[in-house]
Design brief:
The complex is a heterodimer of chains A (about 140) and B (about 325).
Chain A lengths: L6 E5 L8 H12 L3 E4 L6 H11 L3 E6 L4 H14 L6 E6 L3 H9 L5 E3 L5 H11 L7
Parallel strand pairs in A: 1-2, 1-3, 3-4, 4-5
Helix pairs in contact in A: 2-3
Chain B lengths: L2 H7 L3 H12 L5 H8 L7 E7 L5 H14 L4 E7 L8 E3 L14 E7 L11 H10 L4 E8 L7 H4 L2 E6 L20 E4 L7 H13 L10 E3 L8 H17 L2 H32 L3 H9 L5 H10 L5
Parallel strand pairs in B: 1-5, 1-6, 2-4, 2-5, 6-7, 7-8
């Protein structure tokens, strides 16, 4: 029997030290039946990409509140591609201005961006929708 | 040979990661994959780290990694955290303590959820160990979930078992109890700067004095992992135990025992599959259930009746 679960890496890249949001999201995804690997704070792009590889995750969720998203997200996406992990979904959460979000999405550095006010359910729905066919929850 | 297995044997980290997932997800070709992996296993030494939630297992692993790497050995780590029995989800957070090693190519860390297994390990820990063994890691550290008194599966899996305790874990009767206190090859009293550490060490030693084990007396190592204290001693004791296991041929003995158990399990698995395949294919199980429910038949005779119709060849 195939019993896949959606595996999500929740990571805090860079210097921002606030992980309440990341923890709340991690908890909600856990309750939605997913497996969450949490890295803790202050991760470099290299650490995140390598962790995604070793943990064989389906999704990398980046929580960024520092304003450095235009540097960090493309860097992480590039490293993932380099490792042959271009198919991993990259989801960003944090305080991301609209025009920056549009740019990240347009360049293909992120697959989806969630901002303050978006519901936890919308994140769960999005992830479930992305893996509906071959995952059980 | 399967492409992933080939890449695993060539040292491809992504192949190792993907193989562990496939096995964990019970893909149809799982047994075939494990068959190909098996001939390349048997070289790694497996160390189990177990103890209560929050006793410091992950931090200890983190500190230990530095010592092991300094000796030039490569390490695979399997860190198990509990899967929710309600949602099926899990937070795998052991890595947080080990992220300094994320970029060390001699280290491979994999987090696993228990996925319904209750003995302190995950359903597929044993198979994941085989993958990392074939991958070429010299040492494999297995960190169990935070355990209570009786989750002792690790002792069936590891060559050396370390039990991590903290000061003030109850009175001396706790050391008399069966279960977790019996499986240690090495005791660690972590957070040894807290009050009560000396008493805990004494109580463990009193318990050990009562045991008539002449070949190997489990040492009690005091550590403070946040200050990186006691790690040289711990690594030394781990090497001592490994040496003892090899010299006394105990290692061969426990590995034989493990293989015996696995062989039994595999036979049972195959037989079980054969039975249920045929039951699904035609044997009318529902009529039996009805008869049992209405007390016209008992489950013991029904089982015997079912088996008569099974073709085992």
């Amino acid at each position: 029997m195939d019993r896949r679960k959606i595996r999500v890496l929740v990571a805090k890249p860079g210097l921002d030290g606030h992980d309440r949001g990341a923890r709340v999201v991690a908890r909600a995804l856990r309750d939605a039946g997913m497996e969450i690997v949490y890295t803790g704070l202050h991760q470099t792009a290299e650490q995140i990409a390598e962790t995604a590889l070793q943990e064989d995750v389906d999704v990398v969720g980046l929580s960024i509140l520092s304003g450095a998203h235009l540097t960090l997200v493309p860097r992480i996406k590039a490293l993932l591609r380099e490792k042959g992990l271009g198919d991993i979904l990259v989801v960003v959460g944090g305080i991301i201005p609209e025009e920056d979000a549009a740019e990240l999405l347009k360049r293909g550095d992120a697959d989806r961006i969630f901002i303050p006010g978006d519901s936890l359910d919308s994140i769960i729905e999005y992830l479930r929708g992305s893996f509906s066919s071959n995952h059980t929850l | 040979m399967d492409q992933l297995v080939k890449e695993l044997l060539q040292g491809n980290r992504r192949a190792a990661a993907r193989l562990i997932s496939n096995i964990e997800n019970d893909v149809p070709e799982k047994r075939a994959l494990l068959q190909e992996v098996f001939p390349h296993t048997g070289n790694a030494y497996v160390i189990g780290i177990t103890g209560a939630p929050g006793s410091g297992k992950s931090s200890l692993v983190d500190c230990l990694l530095k010592k092991i790497r300094r000796d030039g050995l490569t390490v695979g780590i399997i860190a198990v955290d509990p899967t929710s029995p309600f949602s099926g989800g899990a937070i795998l957070g052991d890595r947080i303590r080990m992220q300094d090693h994320a970029l060390d190519e001699g280290i491979f860390i994999r987090s696993m959820g228990t996925r319904g297994s209750l003995g302190g390990l995950s359903r597929s820990t044993r198979e994941a160990i085989q993958v990392l063994d074939a991958f070429g890691k010299d040492i494999i550290l297995v960190e169990t979930v935070g355990v209570g008194q009786s989750e002792v599966d690790i002792v069936k899996t590891a060559d050396t078992t370390v039990v991590v305790l903290t000061p003030a874990g109850g009175d001396s009767v706790q050391t008399l109890k069966a279960g977790i206190m019996e499986i240690a090859d090495i005791f660690v009293v972590n957070k040894a700067d807290l009050s009560g550490a000396e008493r805990t060490i004494t109580e463990i030693n009193i318990m050990l004095d009562m045991k008539n084990e002449t070949q190997w007396r489990p040492p009690v190592v005091r550590t403070i992992s946040v200050q990186n204290e006691g790690m040289d001693e711990l690594w030394q004791e781990l090497r001592n135990h490994k040496h003892f296991m090899k010299e006394s041929e105990k290692l061969l003995e426990v590995r034989k025992e493990r293989v015996r158990r696995e062989l039994t399990e595999q036979v049972e698995y195959l037989v079980k599959n054969k039975i249920w395949e045929q039951v699904r294919e035609g044997i009318e199980i529902e009529t039996l259930v009805d008869r049992i429910v209405h007390r016209r038949l008992d489950p013991y005779s029904a089982a015997a009746e079912l088996l008569e119709e099974i073709d085992f060849l």
